[in-house]
Amino acid sequence: MRLTPGRLLARLTIVPAVALAAWLLVAFPLLVVGQFTPLTGALLGGPAVIAALVFVPRWVPEPPEDDVPWWPVAAVVLITVAFAAVQLAYHGEALVIRRDPASYAQFTAWIAQHGSLPIPQDRDLIAGNDPAVGYGSLAYYEVGTDIWPQFLAGLPLILSVGYWIGDIPGMLLMAPLIGALGVLTFAGLAARLIGARWAPLAALILAVCQTQQWISRSTYSEIAAQVLMLGALALAFDASASKAPERASQPHALSRGTGLRDRWGATHALAGVAGLVFGLGLVVRIDAIRDLLPVVGFIALLLLARRSQALPMLAGLVLGLGYGFVAGFWLSKPYLDYLSDSLEPLLVLSAVVVVGAALATALLWRHGVPRTDRPSWLPTAVAVLAVLVVVALALRPLLFVQYGHGDEATGVYIGQVQEIEGLPVDPERTYEEMSLYWVSWYVGASTVLLATLGLAILLHRILRRREPRWVLPTMVLVWTVATTLLRPAITPDHPWASRRLIVLVIPAFILFAVWFVAWLARRFATELPASVGERPGAGRMAAAVVTAAGALVMLMPTAITAAGVMSYRSDIGTVAGTRDLCAALPEDASVLMVDGSAGNYMQLIRGMCGVPTARVLTDEVAVVDRVTAEIRERGRTPVLAASAPETLDRYVPSTTPKEHPFDVHSASDPSTLMEPPSGPWAFNGDVWIAVAG
């Protein structure tokens, strides 16, 4: 079969999701059994990825759009490469644990070097079971005699490839590359749903977006989750794609098929891969449970329609979710315990959805998928409702203010940020009522407006059975947008809070907005000539004006906000500081952290320097002396570490040499509450050490 531009674009844009899924499918069991090493990864994971990339793209059918030129393919590749180049140039070096990126980086460094979990405390190399010593730190839980990292293993398993290739710098450079793959994957989804000629515009808006750039510069889990979720939507599209022209009378994707026992072929394999990729999103982020609930409903609709793709998609989803639940409840159980107040209701809701979908399928089995175009007013009512919901979200900040973080430390931090910004100090304010405004900060109010109009028209057309290809994407995107904007459930400073939006929410707004511009341009191109007496070129010219105006009003505000992250690199100098710190420690060192910096640096010293590390739970000099003596009794060199030399002076004589190997003063991500971030804050990282006794 000839490789047309449309087919090449379709194949190319599923490669990221397929590659990540194939790697996770093999790498995760290796970690579970404690054999995640460069050798096993190369021998087992490498062939799995190669096999997936050889076979799965071949199953992708010819896209329904005819006569796709080469320029959209070239433009998408150029945007992806340019994005990767910019993010590589601006990538950060977050290794000191203050927020999630460094936590994931330390997680990666540990499993890449040791290939297993949990992390041993090495009590016998410090002070045994001395009650004055603790081993847990920020994002690393002390459980019995072990230490468990906070988050799920998906992203560290992917970043480990970079660590194996290029040590710490190689790991950090993986983030920009995965972020670029997210742009490429999004272009593929846009090409399938809107048209290949519109894919470059959609990809460019996402690539320019500040949040997409920001998360791609540090080791955030959202970059991998985005690739998997958007890629799964593209694969699901391919599993049911048809070259039949789209028209009102064509068979609907959810109308009755020929039977669940049809002979399986490429479309069924793609459906299984799509379900698997969806499910593996849970290995990366626990909140994927919420985002995947519409997929359960869609599979139920496929079953009612007697579509044989339902069974492989369900099987793939179950397998992927099985990986995710093992990742959560086995390797990250302390983290899930911490999230229990929000996770348990989500699990109950998930059970209700699964049971409800099963019961609905059984009850409606004889009748098939309910008609959504009857009564005739229903599609219009749903479209109007969608607009009203967006209006309500826009009016929400004018009507009330939301309170209650549920976490005292978060409230203290928000109060500090409010003081810095000169805002009224109101620590319990969550700013969740601002969620729609957050979206408008990063892609512009014009994009939000265009997306709202696009969604309303799409819903009307879907319910009238005229947009079958949009059924699953709309179910997933609308559900995720609604639930996320209703309750973002994140510390509300920016750009930090914007990470909650980047996996599906911001892509959804861009996708619906570009679809609306495309729909409007096509209407002008086809209907205007008839209204002006078949004047040659009138329709094409009007369509070009609509396209240019739409692109301009979406790109300009997005680019203006993006300037806020183009002036700095975060935490630069941390890699060199880490190397200096590790070099300064004796080979037989056992490190005691004696001040509040313990939470930030303990896992860095333990995991990247490879020495036993603990913190003293009291500032009593006699206790520190006792613990250092216990370390010496074990034939180790006790090293005290703190963020300031004055702290060390309390525990060692003034004549004791003190070193300052970790001395980093750099830019860091800012924290804003009422406006998008426009420049960096300062990061000051200091670790002083002294040999005790």
Automatic annotation (TrEMBL):
Keywords, A to Z, come to:
Membrane, Transmembrane, Transmembrane helix
Name the coiled-coil region(s). none
Is Transmembrane helix tagged as a keyword?
yes
Recorded superkingdom? Bacteria
Presence of keyword Coiled coil: no
> Signal peptide: which range, if any?
none
TM region(s), chain numbering: 12-33, 39-56, 68-90, 147-165, 172-194, 263-282, 311-331, 346-365, 377-395, 436-458, 470-490, 502-521, 542-566
Q: Where is this region: Disordered?
A: 652-678
Q: What is this protein called?
A: Uncharacterized protein
